[in-house]
Amino acid sequence: MVNIYHFLNGEIRKLTLKELRPALQDPKSVVWVDMEDPMEAEEETIMVAMCDFHHLAIEDCQRGRGDDGHLPKVEDFGEYLFVIFNPVEGVASNDTTDAIARLEVRTSQLSSFLTKTLLLTHHYKQQRSINYVAGLCAKNPQVMGRGPDYLFHMIIDDVVDNYTPMLDNLDDAIDRTEDEVFHEPSADTMMRILQLKRNIMTVRRIAVYQREMLNRLSRGEFPLITTDEMMYYRNVYDHLVRMTDMTDSYRDMVSSLLDAYLSVTSNRLNQVMKVLTIISTIFLPLSVITGFFGMNFTHLPAANWEHGVLVTTIGMLIVAAGMLAFFRWNKWL
Amino acid sequence: MVNIYHFLNGEIRKLTLKELRPALQDPKSVVWVDMEDPMEAEEETIMVAMCDFHHLAIEDCQRGRGDDGHLPKVEDFGEYLFVIFNPVEGVASNDTTDAIARLEVRTSQLSSFLTKTLLLTHHYKQQRSINYVAGLCAKNPQVMGRGPDYLFHMIIDDVVDNYTPMLDNLDDAIDRTEDEVFHEPSADTMMRILQLKRNIMTVRRIAVYQREMLNRLSRGEFPLITTDEMMYYRNVYDHLVRMTDMTDSYRDMVSSLLDAYLSVTSNRLNQVMKVLTIISTIFLPLSVITGFFGMNFTHLPAANWEHGVLVTTIGMLIVAAGMLAFFRWNKWL
Amino acid sequence: MVNIYHFLNGEIRKLTLKELRPALQDPKSVVWVDMEDPMEAEEETIMVAMCDFHHLAIEDCQRGRGDDGHLPKVEDFGEYLFVIFNPVEGVASNDTTDAIARLEVRTSQLSSFLTKTLLLTHHYKQQRSINYVAGLCAKNPQVMGRGPDYLFHMIIDDVVDNYTPMLDNLDDAIDRTEDEVFHEPSADTMMRILQLKRNIMTVRRIAVYQREMLNRLSRGEFPLITTDEMMYYRNVYDHLVRMTDMTDSYRDMVSSLLDAYLSVTSNRLNQVMKVLTIISTIFLPLSVITGFFGMNFTHLPAANWEHGVLVTTIGMLIVAAGMLAFFRWNKWL
Amino acid sequence: MVNIYHFLNGEIRKLTLKELRPALQDPKSVVWVDMEDPMEAEEETIMVAMCDFHHLAIEDCQRGRGDDGHLPKVEDFGEYLFVIFNPVEGVASNDTTDAIARLEVRTSQLSSFLTKTLLLTHHYKQQRSINYVAGLCAKNPQVMGRGPDYLFHMIIDDVVDNYTPMLDNLDDAIDRTEDEVFHEPSADTMMRILQLKRNIMTVRRIAVYQREMLNRLSRGEFPLITTDEMMYYRNVYDHLVRMTDMTDSYRDMVSSLLDAYLSVTSNRLNQVMKVLTIISTIFLPLSVITGFFGMNFTHLPAANWEHGVLVTTIGMLIVAAGMLAFFRWNKWL
Amino acid sequence: MVNIYHFLNGEIRKLTLKELRPALQDPKSVVWVDMEDPMEAEEETIMVAMCDFHHLAIEDCQRGRGDDGHLPKVEDFGEYLFVIFNPVEGVASNDTTDAIARLEVRTSQLSSFLTKTLLLTHHYKQQRSINYVAGLCAKNPQVMGRGPDYLFHMIIDDVVDNYTPMLDNLDDAIDRTEDEVFHEPSADTMMRILQLKRNIMTVRRIAVYQREMLNRLSRGEFPLITTDEMMYYRNVYDHLVRMTDMTDSYRDMVSSLLDAYLSVTSNRLNQVMKVLTIISTIFLPLSVITGFFGMNFTHLPAANWEHGVLVTTIGMLIVAAGMLAFFRWNKWL
Q: What is the C-alpha to C-alpha distance for residues E66 and E235, in angstroms, rounded to an integer?
């Protein structure tokens, strides 16, 4: 599906494919072509025939059909800029504890071409940010009037804003997992920590790549981004710096969780071993005492004494108490 | 609440909002506008209408309303410099051991605009450093006469000085936790170590960002900071270098604490296991001996011998002592 | 075996060794000399006598006879470029679980000399990518007409594409090993994890070296690579960036697997210890009770009571249940 | 206490405070002012009134009164260079094993101002290196004649030389601790390893900072260091490179010690567990056998047989030996 | 001992100390002075009186008398280049397993001065590479005719080649230790792993320093190395790159060995614990059963029944088998 928005003299009109070519040649208009899951014929007509984009760039676009898409990058082809961005997908069900394990961060690919008068966006999955900016333009056409670079900034700014709920989910998941580690660690906890770590590493990697990209976009390296707009790209860059900073601290926290989990497990083992030792310390000696008086000697002492059993029982209690007291005094238990 | 200080001819006067505009246009005066938790109307009047600051910078200011505030940064808008600084908050109750866990480092945001004659500070929470510098100006107006860049240096110097008690708290907490690890480790110790680590990482992150920022401010990158004042910014930079150095060594120490904790836990397990083994080594053989003489054989040896019990008892003691001696000799225990 | 392809006027002809020298001197033709496991005489004739390549470069080629070959590198000799690339070998049998341990990544060496009209490739093992590009040229001679640099790019592009199945194998192996770790860890699991790690590190190392090399090739450092072709080398560079990114995340995952394995092992130990403690907790006290009534006292209580055995048995059951309940209540078990 | 050395025409004279001012104005003389724990009045007179040093630098000097002193740094004030160096203090008692734990590395602060004719050194604690160089000058006045930069190099060269015994101490301590870890690990070993690590990190940190500083001093960044003297500063730089290299390898060794300690502890646990298992494997079955013949059945087999006890005893020995053999054969023990 | 080789007109002659001075002044000759464990008088005559080398460089040479020698470095004194290289010593006895622990890597120091016509090598221990190059020159004087820089390259190339057997030894040692870890881990294994790690780190450190040095020598930074020879230094650089790469992967493998060792130890512990638990699970209940029928109740059930013992024995076997089956079914064992 291809949507073509054409801004001229303060108004936005939707164009058909046929009207696109003359619009592209008008230096006063701004054109935004959004290709969502396009047919190959459409790609051929617009990207090759009309715009003459490099075939390697087009191939990179088409790689977005795959699972994770291409890593973020920006390439300067002189007359146009080719930018790949990675929106993050995969909303997590947030209500149950099991959600921690099920939350999985996925990335998709949003490819864009940027010339002086054209913004072409190309993606296979529906993108919230594209719809959001299209809606914004419908309300206020002047947004589009500020040029393709401003329009593009609007899109990636929204993409980056959409990372925030994902980060919040991760933060919640870390908190819940920390609770779990310290209060009811189970055999699945480890699996959840690893899943968390993997999600965080995915988000971090995208953020780092995009941060580097935005850094280049915002420091005047590409003449297609005007000086006025650079400030806006700097703003997106700032968001990504903050984001990588947060994922860094999340990574630290998850590493700590791993340590904590091992330590809690080891503490539980200590606890169990102490119980076993207490049990043995009390009952093994008693066993020997009862065994002693169970021996079949004719001259067993106290065997015929009336209070023998009572005294022996009391002796056993004293021995048990004494051993416990001795070990506790030695801080062995 | 907005406080406006106006320095002219060696005197400081407090201005109302109305008197601000002419003061701003006088190149000989120095103006300090401090906005503490300002109303939106005030922000609109001063920052937009009078000073014409960039709306992205203003939005960054307003982000300070949130939990942690924006990360430290400095941005050069040509006619003015926009700087975000992060004072550290959250005094810890220092008297009880439990305080270690409760101590939580929080950051707030202090945004500033710096022109040749104006310093505008913007924050939502009350800032000790602002009050301190305001007091200083009241006592000695010439402080303000040295220009907005000197005034701003006074504020961030005090902000950085205020990190010191926080660092001392962390140092104390590390020492106390080390004591705890080696002398009375409990299940909570691990949680405290992790909390410590998190606090240290927070302080370290802020210090690193601000160090980089001060480095840029002090090496003549921004013309609004005069050469004479650069030395003062260098001084603040030095403090932050020292601070990151300290947080680095704190981080090392906390990592060591984690190792130590696991090792202490593991030593305790060894101790408990040894006790169990000693108990078993003594009493299991004795159990067999008593069992032996408890067998219902008609021809049980020594069964009818008068000193049988005595000899058996002595034999049991010898066996117990012998086994212990044997294992100790083998360094197994 | 030496294959010589000669492109002139849109046609490709295979040359004999004798026809090579005149072809090399024709500035309009493109020559591709592929030396597969060449004899020393051939090397002498072509590389020394005809092309006059530096003897150190030739020695580097010959090092490819060894196990792993030389590390990737590019060297500019002015009139020619000397490039070493490392194809990855060693297809893994994929069907059984044991394959994980048996999969071993091996590298071979592909050396190339690049002048304005000549591409010389030198290798000891048969290379899929060489055959693939030779086939391509047979179908479409114009491929060779675009020059040795384009031809060379085709080869290394295919070499890099061939890494993909290896990476997929590693990905599968990681998944299978993760399953194994969490569901049926054995003594061999550790060995498999280490083998995996080693394979990943091998792939990663090659990818990093080649990425750096491609980076240099694609940014115009060498005049022998024309500006038009640089875009294609950039494309290969992008693939290698993605590849190192994947190996980085694989490395992270394998490290996590190690942690997980140790944690699972430790959980199993806890489980076993709990069983031992439960057994001891139930039967040691019972042993003492039966021992008690086995003592040979004349006045043993209840000894002659008709229901003595029944009551004692019930008492034993109550004690066993009570101890279990007590420990469970204390969360010790 | 202030010592003023004045070199003129090949002779060194000690000056009083009054004679200092004219000496400072003579471009042919070399003056060395050493301030050891100076009074504030002296600081005021010399550093402010006579030399007009920047008050921030003077404040940095005064910070040396504190515990660890300021971190090493060099600052160029145009007419003079301000350098802070950190001598290492704290000789360790070397004879007993307990010394490892007691050895504590401390740093002090040595601040210096360097002009074309003046070297001013400022410190609170007595410095061996200062006394050593003063002694050298007394013997050979020409040392001082080579200028303040040569004099200053003599001092820091000696400071760095004094690190060597400290490094040797650390090396010894590592060796002793390694012995302890492998041959008689105790609960204190961990504490000693941590103390060692902390000392090493302290030395390393100072060495790294000073190495960076010397690097700047030796590469001609500061015009006050003449080209001839740069070689000498390079020499000190080399020493510091070697020192950081040694501390790096010490750090590695201490990390390895930690691993070794945990592994040795874990081996001991294994040893103890094996003893427990051997004991249980022998005596629990024997207990059951004796229990079997202790049952009060009327028709107990062999009960009345004359050799019953002997055969049973032999049987018990066979069972015990057999179980041990079986487990050993299975390599379980 | 001092050997002086003098190349003039295609011939090499050995000179005495007296003949050296005129030879040094002849710009057409090439002189190689090799000082092996020289007397101080010889050092004085040649290095100071004749060549006028800087005394700091000479002191650095003399540091080679110590244990490890100076770290590799290169210094440009304008008219001459001063280079320190570290040959690796210490051949390991390779035949027994114990050799792993005994293998110890040692470094020595080879200092060299390089002018346009002179190569001076200075070392205290006999150096294989020096003898090898001297032998080569004897056979083919033209080697020396290519100048001191070529001669020097020959020496360090051979020094670096001599690292290879050491690396092979380390590789073997790693393989043998891996075998040991997985098949017969002992208490000494840990010590061997640590010794291995230390050796690898030593080799790695030298390789890294020398790689950096060769990088500088090979990129035209020093005019004394002619452009033609740079290629040869690049070749040595390549060897060192490969070497650091190998030591990097060795380091990774040794780290993995540590993990593996801990995991194997932990698996053994699990194994031992399982044996203990199986023993307890079988025999503790049986003990209670025999105890039950050993109680001295008058009305003990089945006491007088003829098949009581048989039935009880069968019951005991069923209980033992049942418990084992139950635990196995629960996957607890």
A: 31
* Amino acid type, C24: L
Best B105, B268, B305 residue to mutate vs chain A (most A CBs within 10 Å)? B268
CA distance C215 to C240: 10
Report the alpha-carbon distance of residue D97 to residue D186 in Å, rounded.
Answer: 13
> Could you tell me if A4 and A31 are in contact, meaning their C-beta atoms sit under 8 angstroms apart?
yes
pTM of the complete model:
0.81
Nearest to B295 by CA among E301, D315, D282, E317: D315
DSSP lists the bridge partners of residue D325 as none
Among partner residues C262, C280, C300, which is closest to A279 by beta-carbon distance?
C280
Residues of chain E by 3-state class (helix, strand, coil), percent to 5: 60, 15, 25
What are the tokens at A86? 């990675």
Please report the number of interchain residue pairs, chain B to chain D, with beta-carbon separation below 8 angstroms. 128
Tens digit of pLDDT for each residue in C129-176? 999 999 999 888 888 888 899 999 999 999 998 888 888 888 888 888
Q: What gap in Å lies between CA E203 and CA E104, rounded to an integer? A: 11
CA neighbours closer than 13 Å in the CB half-sphere of residue B81? 23
Q: How far apart are CA A280 and CA C168, in angstroms?
A: 54
| Contact residues for E271 (Cβ-Cβ < 8 A; gap 6+) | D332
Instruction: For chain C, positions 192-211, list CB contacts with chain A under 8 A.
Output: none
Question: Which residue stretches of chain A are H helix?
Answer: 17-25, 40-43, 55-62, 99-102, 128-139, 142-145, 148-161, 163-183, 187-218, 227-293, 308-329
- A49 phi and psi, to 5 degrees? -70, -50
Query: Is there a contact between D54 and D114 (Cβ–Cβ < 8 Å)?
Result: no
**Rounded CA gap, A86 and A156, in Å?**
9
Residue D5 has which token pair? 């050395």
Does residue A280 contact residue C284 with C-beta atoms inside 8 Å? yes
DSSP type of residue C123: E
Q: What is residue B96's predicted lDDT score, i.e. its pLDDT?
A: 47
Q: Say whether residue B270 is in contact with chain D using an 8 A CB cutoff.
A: yes
* Residue E26, C-beta contacts closer than 8 angstroms, at least 6 positions apart: E8, E117
Local mean pLDDT, 10-residue blocks, chain B (333 residues): 89 88 87 92 89 89 78 88 85 48 76 93 90 90 89 91 85 88 82 87 88 89 86 89 89 87 82 82 85 80 77 86 80 63
Tens of pLDDT, residue by residue over A94-139, are 444 454 445 677 888 999 999 999 999 999 988 889 999 999 998 8
The DSSP string of D230-259 is HHHHHHHHHHHHHHHHHHHHHHHHHHHHHH
**Measured between alpha carbons, how far is E253 from E248 in angstroms, rounded to an integer?**
9
Q: How far apart are the C-alpha atoms of D92 and D167, rounded to whole Å?
A: 11
Alpha-carbon distance of E38 to B111, in angstroms, equals 69
A273-312 burial, b for 16+ CB within 10 Å, e for fewer? bbbbbbbbbbbbbbbbbbbbbbbbbeebeebeeeebbeeb
Task: Say which of D56, D262, D306 has its CB closest to residue B299.
Answer: D306
Of E235, E253, E288, the CB nearest to C56: E235
Chain D residues in contact with B292 (beta carbon < 8 A):
290, 313
Assess C249–A contact: CB distance below 8 Å, yes or no: yes
Partner C contacted by A142 (CB < 8 A) = no
Q: Which of A265, A284, A309 lies closest to C299 in CB terms?
A: A309
Instruction: Name, in order, each residue with C-beta under 8 angstroms of E255's C-beta and a sequence gap of 6 or more.
Output: E197
Which chains contact A through at least 3 pairs of Cβ atoms less than 8 Å apart?
B, C
- Cβ atoms < 10 Å from Cβ of B183: 8
